[in-house]
Amino acid sequence: MQKWHVELDDAARKKIKMVLRSKNEPMESKKRAQILLDIDESDGRKSESLNIITAKRGVSQNTIVNVRRNYAENGVNAAIFRKKRKTPPVPAKVTGDVEAHIIAVCCSAAPAGKDRWSMQMIADKIMLDGIVDSISDETVRLVLKKHNLNHT
Protein backbone atom coordinates (compact mmCIF):
# COMPACT_ATOMS: atom_id res chain seq x y z
CA MET A 1 0.00 0.00 0.00
CA GLN A 2 1.36 3.38 -1.00
CA LYS A 3 1.66 6.05 1.63
CA TRP A 4 1.87 9.00 -0.81
CA HIS A 5 -0.39 9.51 -3.79
CA VAL A 6 0.34 11.76 -6.75
CA GLU A 7 -2.61 13.48 -8.38
CA LEU A 8 -1.39 16.17 -10.76
CA ASP A 9 -3.55 19.16 -11.58
CA ASP A 10 -3.38 21.12 -14.83
CA ALA A 11 -0.89 23.67 -13.46
CA ALA A 12 1.47 20.91 -12.29
CA ARG A 13 1.24 19.10 -15.65
CA LYS A 14 1.98 22.36 -17.46
CA LYS A 15 5.04 22.96 -15.25
CA ILE A 16 6.27 19.39 -15.86
CA LYS A 17 5.87 19.70 -19.63
CA MET A 18 7.80 22.99 -19.59
CA VAL A 19 10.65 21.27 -17.74
CA LEU A 20 10.65 18.40 -20.23
CA ARG A 21 10.78 20.79 -23.22
CA SER A 22 13.48 23.00 -21.70
CA LYS A 23 17.02 22.71 -23.03
CA ASN A 24 18.50 24.30 -19.91
CA GLU A 25 17.25 21.83 -17.32
CA PRO A 26 19.57 19.01 -16.22
CA MET A 27 18.68 15.43 -17.12
CA GLU A 28 18.08 14.61 -13.46
CA SER A 29 15.23 17.15 -13.32
CA LYS A 30 13.80 15.87 -16.58
CA LYS A 31 13.83 12.26 -15.30
CA ARG A 32 12.06 13.30 -12.13
CA ALA A 33 9.46 15.20 -14.13
CA GLN A 34 8.85 12.16 -16.32
CA ILE A 35 8.57 9.98 -13.21
CA LEU A 36 5.85 12.31 -11.90
CA LEU A 37 3.90 11.79 -15.11
CA ASP A 38 4.38 8.02 -14.81
CA ILE A 39 3.07 7.89 -11.22
CA ASP A 40 0.17 10.31 -11.78
CA GLU A 41 -3.11 8.87 -10.45
CA SER A 42 -5.45 11.73 -11.34
CA ASP A 43 -8.64 11.15 -13.35
CA GLY A 44 -8.83 7.53 -12.15
CA ARG A 45 -5.58 6.55 -13.85
CA LYS A 46 -3.55 3.75 -12.38
CA SER A 47 0.09 4.45 -11.60
CA GLU A 48 2.62 2.25 -13.33
CA SER A 49 4.40 -0.22 -11.05
CA LEU A 50 7.80 0.57 -9.56
CA ASN A 51 9.46 -2.18 -11.59
CA ILE A 52 8.14 -0.85 -14.90
CA ILE A 53 9.15 2.74 -14.12
CA THR A 54 12.56 1.59 -12.89
CA ALA A 55 13.22 -0.24 -16.14
CA LYS A 56 11.77 2.50 -18.35
CA ARG A 57 13.53 5.48 -16.70
CA GLY A 58 16.77 3.85 -15.56
CA VAL A 59 16.42 4.94 -11.93
CA SER A 60 16.22 3.08 -8.64
CA GLN A 61 13.00 2.38 -6.80
CA ASN A 62 14.18 4.69 -4.02
CA THR A 63 14.29 7.57 -6.50
CA ILE A 64 10.69 6.94 -7.48
CA VAL A 65 9.60 6.75 -3.84
CA ASN A 66 11.52 9.96 -3.05
CA VAL A 67 9.89 11.80 -5.97
CA ARG A 68 6.47 10.59 -4.83
CA ARG A 69 7.13 11.66 -1.23
CA ASN A 70 8.61 15.05 -2.18
CA TYR A 71 5.60 15.81 -4.36
CA ALA A 72 3.10 14.79 -1.68
CA GLU A 73 4.85 16.77 1.06
CA ASN A 74 6.22 19.84 -0.77
CA GLY A 75 4.73 20.11 -4.26
CA VAL A 76 5.93 19.82 -7.83
CA ASN A 77 9.03 22.04 -7.55
CA ALA A 78 10.43 20.05 -4.63
CA ALA A 79 9.85 16.80 -6.52
CA ILE A 80 11.63 17.94 -9.69
CA PHE A 81 14.39 20.31 -8.64
CA ARG A 82 17.23 19.94 -6.16
CA LYS A 83 17.16 22.00 -3.00
CA LYS A 84 19.69 24.85 -2.98
CA ARG A 85 22.29 24.86 -0.22
CA LYS A 86 22.09 27.67 2.28
CA THR A 87 25.83 27.59 2.90
CA PRO A 88 28.62 26.14 0.79
CA PRO A 89 30.18 22.87 1.99
CA VAL A 90 33.53 24.61 2.52
CA PRO A 91 33.65 28.29 3.42
CA ALA A 92 35.50 30.52 0.99
CA LYS A 93 39.14 31.06 1.90
CA VAL A 94 39.40 34.31 -0.01
CA THR A 95 37.14 36.99 1.47
CA GLY A 96 37.05 40.69 0.73
CA ASP A 97 39.67 41.30 3.43
CA VAL A 98 42.05 38.75 1.89
CA GLU A 99 41.47 40.23 -1.57
CA ALA A 100 42.31 43.69 -0.23
CA HIS A 101 45.60 42.40 1.21
CA ILE A 102 46.51 40.67 -2.05
CA ILE A 103 45.86 43.85 -4.01
CA ALA A 104 47.79 45.94 -1.50
CA VAL A 105 50.82 43.64 -1.73
CA CYS A 106 50.64 43.61 -5.52
CA CYS A 107 50.53 47.42 -5.69
CA SER A 108 53.32 47.93 -3.16
CA ALA A 109 56.99 48.18 -4.05
CA ALA A 110 58.64 44.91 -5.03
CA PRO A 111 61.09 43.32 -2.60
CA ALA A 112 64.77 44.25 -2.81
CA GLY A 113 66.48 42.73 -5.83
CA LYS A 114 63.19 42.06 -7.70
CA ASP A 115 61.55 44.03 -10.47
CA ARG A 116 58.02 42.99 -9.54
CA TRP A 117 56.02 40.66 -7.34
CA SER A 118 55.53 37.13 -8.63
CA MET A 119 52.29 35.32 -7.84
CA GLN A 120 54.13 32.93 -5.51
CA MET A 121 55.84 35.81 -3.72
CA ILE A 122 52.47 37.49 -3.12
CA ALA A 123 51.04 34.21 -1.80
CA ASP A 124 54.04 33.74 0.51
CA LYS A 125 53.78 37.33 1.78
CA ILE A 126 50.06 36.92 2.55
CA MET A 127 50.81 33.73 4.51
CA LEU A 128 53.75 35.35 6.37
CA ASP A 129 51.55 38.28 7.37
CA GLY A 130 49.13 35.77 8.92
CA ILE A 131 46.20 36.73 6.72
CA VAL A 132 45.50 33.10 5.69
CA ASP A 133 47.00 29.74 6.61
CA SER A 134 47.60 28.73 3.02
CA ILE A 135 46.95 30.14 -0.41
CA SER A 136 48.15 29.16 -3.87
CA ASP A 137 49.70 31.34 -6.51
CA GLU A 138 46.77 30.42 -8.78
CA THR A 139 44.30 31.86 -6.26
CA VAL A 140 46.35 35.06 -6.18
CA ARG A 141 46.27 35.18 -9.98
CA LEU A 142 42.49 34.75 -10.04
CA VAL A 143 41.99 37.54 -7.50
CA LEU A 144 44.16 39.91 -9.55
CA LYS A 145 42.35 38.90 -12.74
CA LYS A 146 38.98 39.47 -11.10
CA HIS A 147 40.00 43.05 -10.34
CA ASN A 148 41.56 43.60 -13.77
CA LEU A 149 45.02 44.22 -12.35
CA ASN A 150 47.71 43.71 -14.94
CA HIS A 151 50.61 42.17 -13.06
CA THR A 152 53.30 42.81 -15.68
What is the straight-line distance between the termini?
A: 70 Å
Structural class: mainly alpha
Number of domains: 2
The helix tally amounts to 8
Overall form: rod-shaped
As residue ranges, the low-confidence spans are none
Tally of strands: 0
Helix content percent band:
40-55%
Most strands sheet: none
Strand content: under 5%
The H/E string reads HHHHHHHH
Explained architecture:
This protein is 55% helix and 0% strand. Helix 1 (10-21) runs antiparallel to helix 2, helix 6 packs across helix 7 and helix 7 crosses helix 8 (137-146). The longest helix is centred in the middle third of the chain and has 14 residues, at 61-74. It has two domains: 10-80; 96-146. By secondary structure, it is an all-alpha fold.
